[in-house]
């Protein structure tokens, strides 16, 4: 605006000079000067207006862009925000996928491990069942073998005997000769077996031992309460297999522990054979 004022001021000075008194001004010159001045003013105004408009418009756009930020800055911000949101979403998606993959791997690993554990447990159970079956078979075979050996021993024994007979014989030997040596125990067993073979006595071990008034451990209870030792079992087995020192004896007594009337009967009615340790044997 100041430039426009300066220009108009210069034009007025020029006109004043032209219209100075030394110069005769005709109407024609006045008109021409007025036209020139008017045209100059118009041109100047248009020139400055155009420049001002151009500058003002440029300044206005710049000011708009700088102050309000305009829509271009808002769009940039939104775009950046969208990019940030998308990036965050991608990151979250990646993390989620990674977590899902890891969870899936862990689940697959757990499932595989459980499957292996179940297979191993099933394998161990099968092995255990197989082992138990083998053990049962082994026990059955051993029992069959024992029974076969026992039956063979019974058939080969001097007299046939049942399981009950065998138990009764071991008990009566223990009760009567538990404090004796092996021969003394075999001798007591020999007497019982001799009676089974004799027609004068019952034909089974159990019946011979439990015959009334024959063996004191039966009626005083020692037969039931005694504990059979391995030494007695060995002596009984040897007697059953045929080892015999009895000379056919059918009776024996411990003179110190027998009643006087029984001692008298032994001495008066039976034949004395021999004595071994505390027992005297008769026929």
What is the secondary structure topology, with strand pairs?
Layout: H1 2-18, H2 27-67, H3 70-156, H4 163-177, H5 182-197, H6 205-209, H7 216-220, H8 222-225, H9 230-240, E1 251-253, H10 260-269, E2 272-276, E3 279-282
Antiparallel strand pairs: 1-3, 2-3
Helix pairs in contact: 1-2, 4-5, 5-9
Fill in the keyword field for this structure.
283 residues, mainly alpha, Arc Repressor Mutant, subunit A, 3-stranded antiparallel beta sheet, rod-shaped
- Kindly report the CATH topology of the domain at 163-282: Arc Repressor Mutant, subunit A
Low-pLDDT regions = 53-70
**Rg, alpha carbons:** 71 Å
SSE class: mainly alpha
Distance between the termini: 172 Å
* CATH class identity of the domain at 163-282: Mainly Alpha
Binned, the helix content reads over 70%
What is the element string, with H for helices and E for strands? HHHHHHHHHEHEE
CATH homologous superfamily caption of the domain at 163-282 = Cell wall hydrolase SleB, domain 1
Number of helices: 10
**What gross morphology would you assign?**
rod-shaped
Mean pLDDT: 80
For the secondary structure, the number of strands is: 3
Q: From the coordinates shown, what is the CATH architecture of the domain at 163-282?
A: Orthogonal Bundle
The largest pleated sheet is described as:
3 strands, antiparallel
Beta content comes to under 5%
Going across the biggest sheet, name each strand in turn: 1-3-2
């Amino acid at each position: 605006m100041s430039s426009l004022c300066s220009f108009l001021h210069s034009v007025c000075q020029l006109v004043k000079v032209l219209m100075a008194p030394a110069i005769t001004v005709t109407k024609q010159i006045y008109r021409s000067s007025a036209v020139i001045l008017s045209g100059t003013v118009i041109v100047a105004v248009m020139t400055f207006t155009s420049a001002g408009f151009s500058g003002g418009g440029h300044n206005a756009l710049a000011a708009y862009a700088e102050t309000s930020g305009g829509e271009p800055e808002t769009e940039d911000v939104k775009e950046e925000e969208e990019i940030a949101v998308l990036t965050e979403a991608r990151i979250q998606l990646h993390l989620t996928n990674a977590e899902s993959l890891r969870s899936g791997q862990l689940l697959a690993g757990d499932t595989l491990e459980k499957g292996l554990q179940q297979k191993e447990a099933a394998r161990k159970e099968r092995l255990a069942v197989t082992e138990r079956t083998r053990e049962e078979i082994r026990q059955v075979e051993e029992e069959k073998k024992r029974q076969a050996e026992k039956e063979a021993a019974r058939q080969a024994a001097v007299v046939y005997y049942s399981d009950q007979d065998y138990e009764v014989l071991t008990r009566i030997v223990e009760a009567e000769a538990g404090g004796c040596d092996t021969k003394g125990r075999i001798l007591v067993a020999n007497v019982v077996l001799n009676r089974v073979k004799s027609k004068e006595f019952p034909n089974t071990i159990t019946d011979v031992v439990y015959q009334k008034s024959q063996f004191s451990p039966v009626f005083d209870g020692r037969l039931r309460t005694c504990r059979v030792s391995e030494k007695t079992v060995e002596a009984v087995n040897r007697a059953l297999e045929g080892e015999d020192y009895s000379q056919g004896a059918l009776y024996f007594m411990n003179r110190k522990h027998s009643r006087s009337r029984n001692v008298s009967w032994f001495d008066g009615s039976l034949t004395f054979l021999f004595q071994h340790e505390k027992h005297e044997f008769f026929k």
